[in-house]
Amino acid sequence: MNDWSAEVTENYGLQVENLRKGRGSWILETDRGLKLLKEYKGSVRRLEFEALVLGTVNGLGGLQVDQYLRNKEGELLSSAEDGTRYIVKDWFSDRECDLKDAREVLFAVRQTAMLHKLFRQVGMREEWSMKSMISPPLYEAMERHNRELKKARAFIRGKRRKNEFELCVMESYDDFYRQAVEAKAGMEALFKEHGDELMERYHVCHGDLNQHHLLIGGSYVAVTEFNKMHFGLQVEDVYNLLRKVMEKNDWEESLGRSMLEAYERVLPFGALERKCLYYLFLYPEKYWKQINFYYNANKAWVPARNSEKIRSLRRQQEARMRFVNCLVNW
């Protein structure tokens, strides 16, 4: 096991006063504030991309974002004695956004819009033309997920004795799969008809925006974990955050509308972005996730809570579709 206190003292000149385990990382209390240390398996070029983009927006518009530290050699990436590659960055003591607190959620949404607005000032560079940095058309993931749904359904149908989860899936599959097919077809048609226009709307996106990566400070929001940052449609970030909130609040339509209005007061959506958002919400992503998890896991035993999750998705269907349908005329 590495002595991380000694590592960061030697490579970064930080005096570590306390060290504790974080989520896949180490949290360091140092003489220069709170830091986070974690293993890194990506490329240096990817790190330089993140560092440059985040350095342009940090501290603007009431936002705080991840900032990587350079070691004594001026590098973003360091290597421990055992060969482990790691990074160190500034960190925050603030708590995650509470998805049940409407005021807090709206504050986070407004700051997300501000982040996107600042990101639009960052232009594409030739050295950033890597596969991981440019989003493919949104319908491609839907197409892949639909194939996975069909495989899982075929497997379940072929079983002579079905467990509770499998019976829940067979009872609910047709309605959800119909939505999946419609969403994929609509998104694909949108990209094929307006592909060039949509590409012109590609900007820097967070890539994995949810409550875990939005930390609420006294007068600011700290946005963290940009390891999936890429160029794409920023509406996908909006969808990821809104879906998490709506799922936690039983798809309360008024809350969803308030969130969209809060975002648009800072950064209005275009007509194409609104259509993308509609098809993203129409796609039954959480249903796919539950089935995909089942199909790729040990099928000999399925936890009872997995069956309850499918039932919960069915209970929420009416409220979910009310919100999805309100996006048609929004």
TrEMBL record:
Gene3D superfamilies: 3.90.1200.10, Phosphorylase Kinase, domain 1 (3.30.200.20)
The entry's keywords: Capsid protein, Virion
InterPro entries: CotS-like, Kinase-like_dom_sf
Source superkingdom: Bacteria
GO cellular component: endospore-forming forespore
Protein name per its UniProtKB record: Spore coat protein CotS
Organism: Candidatus Copromonas faecavium (nom. illeg.)
